[in-house]
Write a structure and sequence with these properties.
The protein is mostly helical and 156 residues long. The chain is built from six helices and three strands. It has a three-stranded antiparallel β-sheet. Helix 1 packs across helix 5, helix 2 crosses helix 5 and helix 3 packs across helix 4. The longest helix is centred in the N-terminal third of the chain and has 25 residues. It is globular.
């Protein structure tokens, strides 16, 4: 077995800073949303509410969020109990299911969005120059491409 390619000190520092930022940013945004909806609820509701029929196949929602099927299912179950979403049979495919935003879910995302966007601007967007923002977007797209590459031997 080949020796692992250990991270250099600079690489390790960059990775630690990135993961710390990611975790702390999610935690802060979750606290900002308060007790009404979680950051995970927000991701689901934002994804669904952007769709023309405010619905999406559950498998597609999981792909968009980067979640396993079981995680999507558990999240939707919790949200359905609170009246934010509902599941429906896919009209053109009896085997598939749709996640649909309810009126209460739409009201929740509309109420949360202004403060959430203000926090995203304050904690992230407004700190960056346009060039830094373009660079983060490009880097994110590159990493997402690797994460979704079916030929990647580390994927699952």
């Amino acid at each position: 077995m080949a020796e692992p390619r250990w991270l250099t000190d600079e690489e390790a520092q960059a990775w630690r800073r990135f993961t710390t930022m990611r975790f702390q940013l999610d935690a802060r945004l979750d606290r900002q949303l308060g007790n009404t909806i979680s950051i995970q609820d927000y991701g689901v509701l934002a994804s669904l509410s952007e769709e023309p029929n405010k619905s999406m196949r559950i498998s597609e929602l999981g792909e968009r969020l980067g979640w396993e099927t079981s995680r999507v299912s558990h999240q939707l179950t919790r949200m359905a109990k609170r009246g934010l979403v509902e599941r429906r049979r896919c009209p053109n495919d009896g085997r598939g299911s749709l996640a649909v935003v309810t009126d209460a879910g739409q009201a929740a995302i509309e109420a949360a969005a202004p403060d959430h966007v203000a926090s995203v601007r304050h904690l992230f967007i407004d700190l960056l120059t346009p060039e830094e923002l373009r660079m983060i977007s490009a880097v994110s797209q590159k990493v997402l491409g690797r994460l979704h590459d079916p030929a990647d031997p580390t994927g699952s």
